[in-house]
Amino acid sequence: MSSGKVLLGLLAGVAAGAIAGLLFAPSKGSNTRKKIVKKGKNYEKKLEKKFSKNMDMANKKFEKMKTEVTDFAKKNMHKAEQVKEQVKNQVTEQVKK
User: Fold this and answer.
1) What does the domain layout of the chain look like in residue ranges?
2) Across the 97 residues of the chain, what is the mean pLDDT of every consecutive 10-residue run?
3) For residue 15, which of 34, 51, 43 has the smallest C-alpha distance?
């Protein structure tokens, strides 16, 4: 499941829970608001952890890909230099003839 869908589901759940809590609250409004704030903060912490985890994973994948592309470029640059040298030698031989 994509992180966007998880975030949307999480936000919808928080909103639905807050509304239901207000409508069916057996305690005073001030107590209910405190509970909602507390739950909201808990959800916020969980969301921050998930976001941080996903960012770490994305950074690791990016670094791995960057390393692979750099290695590929270095490897092929060496081959390109060899081909360039071969062409240069062939042109030099053709000019001498």
Assistant:
1) 3-96
2) 78 83 73 82 91 93 94 84 83 77
3) 43
